[in-house]
Design brief:
283 residues; alpha/beta; seven-stranded mixed sheet; two-stranded antiparallel sheet
Length: 283
């Protein structure tokens, strides 16, 4: 039996016609091009050219469409998300990297200019996207830690995928760190959503992304309280702490920074002008 990319696209679109989902057509195209290993231009140019069905690939395609129909995030379906110019493997054991987090990575890179002879820790690394991106940006020594062994497996896979030499530690924040380890830079995108807000998130997020990577406690600040308090003991003199934050959390995190006597506190904005991170220096 012969088919075409257009027929496959229409078939999937028909399967999803009753789904209340954004970007349906785009998601189908991404699944189609990824499954059949074709670039987007070829998909457009060859859309109506018929070819013999590959039953294995066709089955894989329709299984993926069924997952999309069940609101599984696109990135988990194709096991891929681009971040800071690199493609990262992702699955349900890690948070899907967001473009907002690129603002934090970019700020670290810009702050330290051409001198990358600094040691970096990516705390709560998840997929390892921050650690790998910083290593590929030229930082000499990069460590990454997470409490989840499954997340660390994904991060290690991504480090290997991008030939990034990273030291990995499994730890509940700093609780299992060696006492004599220290860094010039600590970066973290910790869980920061209020527990009561989790159920209000989009279905794709609340049902499929790991709650461990989302839930920041009653006020969303549980992790910030611990990280800001304890990071100063793992930062070298004049070292900097970079934290991604929710858009309404700057005031609270700045309060913590001042409470624990950090200085040179800077708010990092995203492209829309919203608060996206905080940078602070240990003195």
């Amino acid at each position: 039996m012969r088919t075409s990319y257009r027929k496959l696209f229409v078939k999937a679109l028909d399967e999803l016609k009753n789904c209340d989902m954004e970007n349906v057509e785009y998601n189908i195209k991404i699944i189609l091009t990824d499954t059949f290993n074709i670039d987007f231009n070829k998909f457009i140019l060859d859309m109506d050219n018929e070819f013999e069905e590959n039953k294995v690939l066709l089955n894989k395609y329709m299984v993926r469409i069924e997952k999309l129909k069940a609101y599984v995030p696109l990135q988990y379906i194709i096991n891929k998300q681009n971040f800071y110019g690199l493609d990262f493997y992702v699955d349900g054991s890690v948070l899907i990297p967001r473009y907002d987090t690129e603002n934090i990575v970019d700020r670290v890179v810009k702050d330290f200019g051409e001198n990358k002879e600094f040691s970096v820790l990516d705390l709560c690394t998840g997929s390892g996207c921050i650690a790998v991106s910083l290593k590929k940006s030229g930082f000499k020594k990069v460590c990454a830690s997470d409490i989840s062994d499954k997340a660390l497996s994904v991060a290690k896979h991504n480090a290997k995928l991008h030939n990034a030499d990273i030291i990995f530690l499994q730890s509940d924040l700093y609780n299992d760190f060696p006492k004599d380890i220290s860094f010039d830079i600590i970066v973290s995108n910790p869980p920061y959503i209020e527990s009561s807000e989790i159920e209000k998130l989009d279905k794709e997020v609340r049902e499929f992304e790991p709650r461990l990577a989302l839930d920041g406690g009653k006020d969303g600040l549980d992790f910030y309280k611990e990280i800001v308090k304890k990071s100063k003991y793992f930062l070298n003199q004049n070292g900097r702490l970079y934290l991604e934050i929710g858009s309404t959390q700057a005031k609270d995190v700045i309060y913590l920074a001042k409470k624990y006597q950090y200085d040179d506190i800077i708010i990092i904005k995203d492209l829309s002008g919203s608060d996206r991170g905080i940078s602070m220096r240990v003195n």
